[in-house]
């Protein structure tokens, strides 16, 4: 069992402050594998502009989502390899889809290992990007841009299982742990 970061890692609000693909773009899980008690429609929630989430690599599993003014998104993954004895790396499979037929651009990988990780266009939907990452004691992730104030749908699985408990973001001035739905639709607060 994975430990989500909200069990011991504080989330902190801080003020503002090309793709990589190893050719292995695939969906690790069956997308029809619903999350238990998942709502029929994705839940929309706010994500605060320029709010940061503090992450401690290796101390807990999580998908950390941040939005910066101008349409700049950062999504990083962490695992509990240092917090749990003999923990295996976390196998993340995450899809990002912008709302209303908008597009994702300027995709830049963050600390991906070429043998296990990839980010690229999701073959079943050319508007979506997919991050596949085997995260150990480091952080893996991606940054990308959408049109400013565009919402983003995030669909995540951890080791082939619905990752609803492992979402972290800041919205309405509060740190959020766990998602009310998978996918989750994040709408930036007004800039």
Top keywords for this entry?
191 residues, mainly beta, Immunoglobulin-like, 7-stranded mixed beta sheet, 13 strands
Which secondary structure elements does this structure contain, and how are they paired or packed?
Elements: E1 43-47, E2 62-68, E3 72-78, E4 90-98, E5 105-110, E6 118-121, E7 129-135, E8 140-145, E9 152-158, E10 161-162, E11 167-171, E12 174-177, E13 184-188
Parallel strand pairs: 1-13, 2-11
Antiparallel strand pairs: 2-3, 3-8, 4-7, 4-9, 5-8, 6-7, 9-10, 9-13, 11-12
User: Which structural class do the helices and strands define?
Assistant: mainly beta
Sheet with the most strands?
A: 7 strands, mixed
CATH class: Mainly Beta
Helix and strand succession? EEEEEEEEEEEEE
State the share of residues found in helices, binned by percent: under 10%
Please give the oligomerization state of what you see. single chain
Beta fraction: 35-45%
Q: What would the principal axes of the Cα set say about the shape?
A: globular
Total domains: 1
Ranges where pLDDT stays below 50 over 5 or more residues in a row are: 5-28
Written account of the structure:
It is a single chain. By secondary structure, the chain is mainly β. The chain has a single domain, classed as Immunoglobulin-like, CATH 2.60.40. Strands 1, 4, 6, 7, 9, 10 and 13 form a 7-stranded mixed sheet that branches.
